[in-house]
Amino acid sequence: MKVLNIVETAYRATLEEQDDTILWLSQSFQDAGVDISILLRGNAVNYLVKEQKPFNLHFGTWKQTQPPELDRDLEIMIDKDISVYAVAEDIQERALLQERLIDGVSLIEKSQVAQLFEQFEYVWHW
Amino acid sequence: MSSKTLSIAIMDAPYESANSTTALRIIHSALNQGHNVNVFAYEGAVNLTMKEQAPHANSIKGTTLAQENHPTTKDWISALFKLAQEKEITLNWINCGLCVDERGAGNWIDGVQRGGPADFIKSVKKSDGVLVIPTR
Question: Residue A101 sits in a domain of what CATH number?
Answer without folding.
Answer: 3.40.1260.10
